[in-house]
Amino acid sequence: MYDPLHDKIPGCGDAYPDSYWANVSGDAPADDGAIDHDIDVDVAIIGAGYTGLSCALHLAQQHGIKASVFEANKTAWGCSGRNAGFILKSSGRKSYSNMQQQWGEEVMRGIYGEMCAGVETVKELISQAKAQGIDCQPQEAGYIKVAHKPKMLNELIALAKLQQKMFGYDVEILSKDEVRQQYMDDRNAYGAIRYQDGFGINPLKLAWGYQQLARNAGAKIYTASPVINWHEENSDTASATQLLHTPNGIVKAKKVVIATNGYTPKGFHSLVTNRTLPVLSQIIVTEPLSDEQITACNFLTSNVVMDTRALKYYYRKLPDNRLLFGGRGAITGKSADDPYYAQRLLSVLKTSFPALANIKYHYAWSGWICMALDDLPHIYQSHDKVSQSNVFYSMGYCGSGVSFSVQAGKRLAEKVAGIESPNLPLYQKALPKFPLAPLRRLGQWSYFHYGKIKDEYF
Ligand SMILES: Cc1cc2nc3c(=O)[nH]c(=O)nc-3n(C[C@H](O)[C@H](O)[C@H](O)COP(=O)(O)OP(=O)(O)OC[C@H]3O[C@@H](n4cnc5c(N)ncnc54)[C@H](O)[C@@H]3O)c2cc1C
């Protein structure tokens, strides 16, 4: 499997992984195919995931700028077509209490507002895409955060109280019995908090919907068009032109947006080098549960569920009664497809639902999420070198970017159009560099071991 810390390009026109989403979503809507000659564009966007598509859509709809998106493989071939489809009011891994301590209440509230705006924009785009025949099947609303140990419930209750007080957020507290009797009989659940507003969708169709809306608004989406080399012309002036080399044509761009997130290739651009850590997240989807199995597990909900472990597990019941179950994957691309990782998820699923002791999985795949050193996504325009002031990026969602990437794309579009972003660390600061960057994987390995011990014994 492609490994962003080792490989120079993610592929060229590669097929989707053999995921549940790729199998159930039908045919992709039309795109603009591969670029086959040199072109001049005002704005080039690299990567056709949610970030790139949202940026293209907002540039066209709100600023009258018709951008061209260049995707190495297919639309949403990266994380956007592989994720679990949880729409949540969050991104990154930094807690609101930590934000408040570091930056004060106003900034913390500002960031919360951006997360909420992301969810609202996704909902709006879901309805627009549905009206055009692309339905990403939103499920009933509700996000359950499960305490995997009795003492974790106290932490969840404290979090719920903080969010209720700070944001007037509607968070319900559920005892162990309430979770098991009213939602699902998860034997690893020792209570939970439940938000009324998270929900699950088909992530690939969500991206296809964005693509259709962006193309209708005048954007071009070129697939099978990896950027394999990048040069600057007139690099000591503010009007430097960016030259993006693809296999069959050179793109001359006045402005460039990097929207490659966890799939950013090795040494791609100095602005992002050593500033992210791609980490594999793995998903399995089981065979459909029979009525008897659903009753035995008391599986009454299609809410999205996540637990409190340091190495989190998450799951949801899909519209066809299969279970999607996810957690951490391998460390390197080379071992990503080792069935060990899918089997490990299956055995954890069975500890939650012993009645499914004989269940099999039908699909298993993984994808690269994008960790940032400070646990925050960054949407940034370079000010370091005069020639780079026409290069922008957004990345670092830390495995939680389905809803916020849309807001990030909208803010990116504003930056490209010369409009100032809100004065929040998300929009004003570059991604911090990882110290000892060549040892990032060793750090990740150590964290996994620490997490395993913490989750088991503390
Ligand atoms: C298994 C898994 C489960 C997840 N579950 C959730 C969830 O339930 N909820 C949630 O909020 N988040 C989840 N996430 C994270 C979420 O999917 C991402 O944050 C989001 O999709 C990021 O979108 P993006 O557009 O920034 O990046 P991506 O969708 O990864 O798109 C980047 C694109 O750039 C392309 N690219 C890279 N290099 C080049 C190049 N040189 N030339 C051209 N194209 C290039 C890639 O091919 C790729 O298609 C999950 C991620 C994974 C892997």
Using brief descriptors, characterize the structure shown.
FAD/NAD(P)-binding domain; 458 residues; globular; binds flavin-adenine dinucleotide; alpha/beta; 8-stranded mixed β-sheet; single chain
Walk me through the structure.
The structure is a single chain. The protein is an alpha/beta fold and 458 residues long. It has helices at residues 20-24, 50-63, 96-103, 105-131, 150-167, 176-182, 203-216, 291-296, 339-352, 404-416, 425-428, 440-457; strands spanning 39-46, 68-70, 86-87, 143-146, 171-174, 192-195, 199-200, 220-222, 229-233, 241-246, 249-258, 277-286, 304-307, 314-317, 323-328, 361-371, 378-381, 391-395. It has a domain at 20-84 and 204-275 and 373-436: FAD/NAD(P)-binding domain (3-Layer(bba) Sandwich). Strand 13 and strand 14 form a beta hairpin. Helix 3 crosses helix 4, helix 4 crosses helix 7 (203-216) and helix 4 crosses helix 10 (404-416).
The radius of gyration computed from the alpha-carbon positions, rounded to a whole number of angstroms, is 21 Å
Averaged pLDDT:
95
Compute the separation of the termini in Å. 35 Å
Note the total helix count: 12
Largest sheet at a glance? Answer: 8 strands, mixed
CATH architecture of the domain at 20-84 and 204-275 and 373-436: 3-Layer(bba) Sandwich
